[in-house]
Amino acid sequence: MENINTYSPECSPVNVSLPPPPPPVKSNCGTKLKKSTDMLLQKCNSFASKATRDSWDRMFDEARGADVLIHTDDNGLIYAHSNVIGMASDVIRGMMKQDKKKPHRKSISILGVPHDAVRVFIRFLYSSCYEKQDMEDFAIHLLVLSHVYVVPHLKRVCESHFENTLLNKENVIDVFQVALLCDAPRLALLCHRMILNSFEEVSTSEGWQAMKQSHPSLQKELLRSVSYELNNLKQKSRKQKEIQTYTQLYDAMEAFVHICRDGCREIGPTKIENPHASCGFQACDGLEQLLKHMAGCKLRSIPGGCSRCKRMWQLLELHSRICVDSEQCRVPLCSDFKERMKKQSRKDEKRWKLLVKNVLSTKRIGGSPYFLQAIDVTL
């Protein structure tokens, strides 16, 4: 059949080729994923025209010429057409071939799920349609049926509904177990994340209590995962605090050089006209207060005396260890501390080198020309 949408130059008044279509508008991956998911959910109730859907639904509801009996729980019966459900599911087609009792009327059984869930499932095989309330009531059962009878499209629909609307803290344990059994790794991962993020609430749900009785090994695995995640969060928090501390120390070292070389506010070789103006070094305020305190403190020379003065001595020693040229350096006692390094024990020297390495590693890119490079510091 000729494609009426195909452009033909002979049909145009002027024999000129059409311009190419405009390039697609670029968007971020998150927006594309959300749009595709929303589109899937919107189309789940409408994969064909309304007339076609109504015809398939009427064929299923009226069951005219039905040649398959489907037995469900509570002695329920559903009539279906072998050609339709056999084309939709290879597993069901194989089950019908095994029934050789009545060649003109096949009989199969779908047990273990509610009768209404089986009816929704068979209806989906006809028209790919379902009611919103049916999906909310039987989503877990439909996920199981789609896996057992190999209906990938229905499986994707169920997973999408759980990911977007149906998954909550009350049913997450049940959905997690079903996702593991039904080979739905993405859904299982989302459930696992929800369990870790809301463990206190999830652990009090009925699903958790039932899992303790039916699958104690899975419960132990989840408890290990929760413990592992908590340890990771603690380590991450501790690492972030360490990085913040090392960054503050590096900023303090830069501010030291700035104060002693250029001067800042009331301290330094050059008097600043506007002492209240910002210099760009956040650590200047704290260092100026420490320097002023140290200059007038009477306890600094007493063993075990002023803690603030001790902190200042430590900052001065740290500067001397990362300073490139102590002879040209204007920071007080820089060269004296370098001489003092030679008399320290190996244990203290190793501890200081580790601190210097961590401080310098916070500024891997660029760095200051007045300090050593991180690659030059070795333990």
UniProtKB/TrEMBL annotation:
Q: Does the keyword Zinc-finger apply?
A: yes
Q: In which pathway does it act?
A: Protein modification; protein ubiquitination
Question: What lineage is this protein's organism placed in?
Answer: Eukaryota, Viridiplantae, Streptophyta, Embryophyta, Tracheophyta
Question: Gene of origin?
Answer: A03p071600.1_BraROA
Q: Where is the signal peptide?
A: none
UniProt-listed Pfam families: BTB (PF00651), zf-TAZ (PF02135)
**TAZ-type domain: from which residue to which, for each copy?**
236-337
Q: What is this protein called?
A: BTB domain-containing protein
The species this protein was found in: Brassica rapa subsp. trilocularis
What residues does the BTB domain cover? 66-134
